[in-house]
Give the backbone structure.
Amino acid sequence: MTRTIKPLVAGNWKMNGLKADLAIAAAVAKGADAPLRQAVDLAICPPATLLFTLTASLIGSRIATGGQDCSAHASGAYTGEVSAQMLVDAGATYVIVGHSERRTLHGESNAQVKAKAEAALAEGLTPIVCVGETKDEREAGKALAVVKKQLRGSVPDGATAASLVVAYEPVWAIGTGLTPTPADVAEMHEAIRAELGPILGKATAAGVRLLYGGSVKPGNAAELMNVANVDGALVGGASLKAEDFLAIARACA
Ligand code: 13P
C-alpha cells in the first residue's frame, strides 16, 4: 500500500510500568532499525512517573514519547493533575486525550477533552484525541453518529495536520481481543476524515493522522493497517512487549 501520510504507531502503556520496564523501551529502540524509523513514526506513552527518564533514555533513537492525559489548566491548585507544560518539560511530544478509560472511569465530557487538547496545542504538544463507540452503540447502529458527535465536541480549534492525531478506538475492542472488520474500520475512518473537514478545513483534514486502536496485535496488524485512511495504531497491551510493538510497527511500513 502506498501511503501519503507517514504512519504513527504509539504505545499506550496505561497504568503499567516501573523503572525496570525502561528495558522495554530500550528493546524497542534497539529493534527499530533505520528503515523502520524512516517509514513509521514511533512513540511510547508511559505513565507520568516514567516519562522524564524514559524520554531521556530514548535520546538519539528518534522514538518520541507522550503523556496519557493532561490537565485543561495551565497551572495552579489542581492536586494530582499534570499540565501540558509539565509533559513538554519531561520531554513529551504527544499526549493522549479523551481515552475511553478516562471518558468512562473519570466521566470526561467532549468539552473537557477539547479543553485538554487545546491546552496541549498551546504548549506545542500534539494531542492524540480518542473517540469510539461502545458495544451497545454499535449494535444499535449508532457507531458513526456517536463518533461524529465526539469529534465535533472534542477536536481542538486551531489544529494543523501536523499538530493533531485522532485515534478511533471502539470501546468494545479495547483489551478484549475483539476487532472490527476491516470494512467497518474503513467505513469509520472515511467518516472521521469527512467529519474533520468542516471542523479543520478540508486540506488539514486530509493530512491528519487517523490511528486505529483496540486489540491491535502482530497477528492482525497487517490487515488493520492496510485499511484506507488508517495511518497507524494506538497500541495498548501489545506495546508492553517490544517484539510485538515492533511487529505492529513493521506492519505499517
Ligand atoms: P489494547 O491494545 O490493549 O486493546 O488497548 C488499546 C488502547 O486502549 C490503546 O489506547
